[in-house]
Amino acid sequence: MNIVGIALGETYSAFLNVKGEIYVIGKIAPIRENLSNDMEYIKPIKCDPISKNRKASIVKIRSGRKHLVCVDRDYKLYSFGMNHDGCLGSEEYNALANPKHIPDFNTND
């Protein structure tokens, strides 16, 4: 799978491969379509919100307790998962199942 990045959440792990795809293992409630329903996986599964909805390749991932933050090759920042205390940086207070671009940050500065 040629792993180039790892992010560890409270109950899950995420792996970034050289193609910019994210795979997850463990309890992955923060990155599922139905965020209220925890599911456990003992084998890595591809994180569909990133792989299906992003044309740009993800180059970095970081994790909070129940959310992921990603940077693509164009230095754009995305976040998704549980939005406890506004940790996703979006103007919403709800959880996000799909990555949302956070335009207030330019990671190329």
Describe what you observe in this structure:
This protein has 109 residues and is mainly beta. It has one domain (3-101). The chain has 1 helix and 8 strands; from the N terminus they run ββββαββββ. It has one helix spanning 48-53, and strands at 3-8, 12-17, 22-27, 40-46, 58-63, 67-72, 77-81, 96-101. A 4-stranded antiparallel beta sheet has the order 1-2-3-4. Strands 5-6-7-8 form a 4-stranded antiparallel beta sheet. The longest helix has 6 residues, at 48-53. The chain is globular and about 35 Å long. The protein starts with a strand and ends in an 8-residue tail after the last strand.
Main attributes of the structure:
109 residues, mainly beta, 4-stranded antiparallel sheet, 1 helix, globular
Structural class per helix/strand content? Answer: mainly beta
Q: Please, what is the average pLDDT?
A: 76
Would you count the extended β strands for me?
Answer: 8
Tell me, what's the shape?
Answer: globular
Strand order of the largest sheet: 1-2-3-4
List unreliable stretches of 5+ residues.
none
Q: How much beta, percentage-wise?
A: 35-45%
The end-to-end span amounts to: 31 Å
- The helix/strand order is EEEEHEEEE
Question: How many domains, in number, for the residues?
Answer: 1
Q: What's the Cα radius of gyration? A: 13 Å
* Major pleated sheet: 4 strands, antiparallel
- Tally of individual helices: 1
Helix share of residues?
Answer: under 10%
SSE blueprint and pairings:
Elements: E1 3-8, E2 12-17, E3 22-27, E4 40-46, H1 48-53, E5 58-63, E6 67-72, E7 77-81, E8 96-101
